[in-house]
Design goal:
3 domains, Structural Genomics Hypothetical 15.5 Kd Protein In mrcA-pckA Intergenic Region, Chain A, 20% helix, 10-stranded mixed beta sheet, Pseudouridine synthase
């Protein structure tokens, strides 16, 4: 099957939903897979991104579906060496605490020893088919060097239900980060457009009037003199690198984030080595709350800061004593 499919709505669809229409036209993909692709932003109607499976296309509409995830063939061999903590598990889903340094799914430069390899070892074939065959179970992602909580789908039913919650932003996600400087004001809302940086394709950037809307609520939890702060960030949207981009936009780049660190920050010499040489972005996904896809029950999970971020905080705290 081609990675890109273009269709025209040539006859009356009788108000058929987008997911039903596409599944009737594309025999190679199941309706649940198509629903996941719509929710994950892979379908356009008349050049407009559509993420609602209930959208009803009209006669004359031109529909573009892209299923062009990684074209290389990653190695999905089970890997017992990929370690993560299991916080909760049932027949529908798995909640894990991912350590920093593990890539979530195979991609350019990382085709093995990813979180998916560990999940395949842990779950066997009990993972959703995902948005493509190389991302089984993956509903959402965090960066390789970000630690914290992830929900994994163990079947297509739960995947579609969870993806829908992410699409309507009903899932609560909170992160703890350490940043250079002190955000002003100490708490608030950051809302911008975010798009791929035109000068560096590895980066995302705040743009004035294009890209995807991104909303982050933040609250300063602790101030370390004037050189750093501990901040809680709550995502209302989930754009690539969103917290890292938004904090850098506020002139408070995350400690350890070499990609988005826009300038050299002045820090006390006693802490300079620890803070300036922190080996990753100091960002931890510590809070996740959502409705169980089958029972509807509210599930709530929190984790403590990992050891490296606790060490960073302890050393910064000493400077103030």
């Amino acid at each position: 099957m081609s990675d890109t499919i273009e269709l025209s709505v040539a006859a009356d669809t009788k108000r058929n939903r987008l997911d039903k229409f596409l599944s009737s036209e594309i025999s190679e993909l199941s309706r649940s897979k198509i629903r996941i692709l719509i929710l994950e932003g892979c379908v356009w109607v008349n050049s407009a991104l559509i993420t609602d499976p209930n959208y009803c296309p009209k006669v004359g509409d031109r529909i573009l579906l892209k299923n062009d995830r990684e074209t290389a063939k990653p190695d999905l061999t089970p890997d017992a060496g990929v370690k993560f903590s299991v916080l909760y598990e049932d027949e529908d889903l798995l909640i894990i605490d991912k350590p920093a340094g593990i890539t979530v799914h195979p991609g350019a430069g990382n085709y093995s020893h990813t979180l998916i390899n560990g999940l395949v070892h842990h779950c066997g074939e009990s993972l959703s088919s995902g948005s493509d065959q190389y991302r089984p179970g993956i509903v959402h992602r965090i960066d390789k060097d970000t630690s914290g909580i992830l929900v994994v789908a163990k079947n297509d039913f739960s995947h579609a239900k969870l993806a829908e919650q992410f699409a309507i932003h009903s899932i609560k996600r909170k992160y703890i980060c350490f940043c250079y400087g002190v955000p002003q004001p100490l708490c608030g809302k950051i809302e911008t457009f975010i798009a791929r940086d035109k000068n560096n394709r590895l980066k995302m950037a705040v743009t004035p009037d294009s890209g995807r809307n991104a909303v982050t609520f933040y609250k300063t939890l602790k101030i370390f003199s004037t050189f750093a702060a501990k901040v809680e960030c709550e995502l209302k949207t989930g754009r690539t690198h969103q917290i890292r981009v938004h904090m850098s936009h506020r002139k408070c780049s995350l400690v350890g984030d070499s990609l988005y660190r826009a300038k050299n920050y002045a820090v006390p010499k006693e802490i300079a080595d620890v803070i300036n040489n922190f080996p990753r972005q100091a960002l931890h996904a510590y809070f996740l709350e959502f409705s169980h896809p089958r029972s509807g029950k509210t599930l709530h999970f929190e984790t403590d800061l990992p050891e490296d971020m606790r060490f960073l905080e302890e050393n910064m705290t000493k400077i103030q004593q």
